[in-house]
Amino acid sequence: MAPGPRVLVVRLSSLGDVVLTTPLLRAIRSRHPTAHTSVVVQARYADILAGNPAVNAIIPVAPREPAGEIARRLAPGAFDARLDLQDSFRSRRLRRKLGGAWGVADRRRAARLLLIWFGRDTYGAYMPVPERYFTAARSLDVRPDGAPAEVFPTADDEAQAERLAPRDCVALAPGARWESKRWPAGHWKALAERLTARGLSVIAVGAAEEREWLSGPGILEAYGLPLLATAAVLRRARVVVANDSGMLHLATAVRRPVIALVGPTVRAFGYFPYGVPAQVLERRLACRPCSPAGSDHCPLGHHRCMIEIEPEAVAAAVERAA
Fold first, then answer.
1. Taking residues 34-52, what's their average pLDDT?
2. 241 in a domain, yes or no?
3. Domain containing residue 50: CATH number
4. pLDDT (tens digit, 9 = 90+) per residue, 73-85?
5. Which one of 111, 174, 203, 241 is least enclosed by Cβ atoms within 10 Å?
């Protein structure tokens, strides 16, 4: 079989965004079985792509590694297709350093800002972010297959998950990078109490420092695990409850039903759960959306979009999913 195209994909961060590249990577492998695909990604998220049969090489980079240093680690003429899924200041610098023709994902930044600043929705037909990434790959003649993102925990990851999480538990992921996207800690605790009172096993997942938002009697914990071990824990759940965060998208990548708690962002941005059974709980307030990806505070100081999602409503959603 003749060699396929040599493809360079750039998606540096963050967790959910890297997870959502995998439908495109799968489509490239399906359309071009002998393609050689290399992905440039921040080292802390590189494990998300480990074991992925659609990826031949992972190029991990430091969070602040200069574009010039990254470019020196790559052979400028070694790629037939170059895809920038990030389109950030640093990825643009990398494009200039490497040269050549690039496909760039349509991030819809202008439409997003018009919606935030003026309330004008110019998005048109809904297109989820995993499918927007395909706009960078037109030269490769690939199409979305509609299936979710995917990750590949190892047998060791699955064994660790089995020791921590009972089958058919309810997984709760209280973290989010930005404060404005976090459901209040008191709501998480009230939800856990309701679920355990109904006889459900509850396990909390996330980064080690997120334990401060949810812990206590009756709550199993799986904080601070490597990403693929966390994915294996999520795979054992009957349903996953999460903020609009990387953990939400990681849960979709192991094909679990999800309940998404969404505050400052909206569906038009493209980050609603992709390819799995999902319930999205949100408050339709005039002040939404207020930021493109969340912020470290509520601009109006009331945080109503998250506070007004009641624990009992989330518990009822869990019952429906179960």
1. 98
2. yes
3. 3.40.50.2000
4. 998 788 999 999 9
5. 111
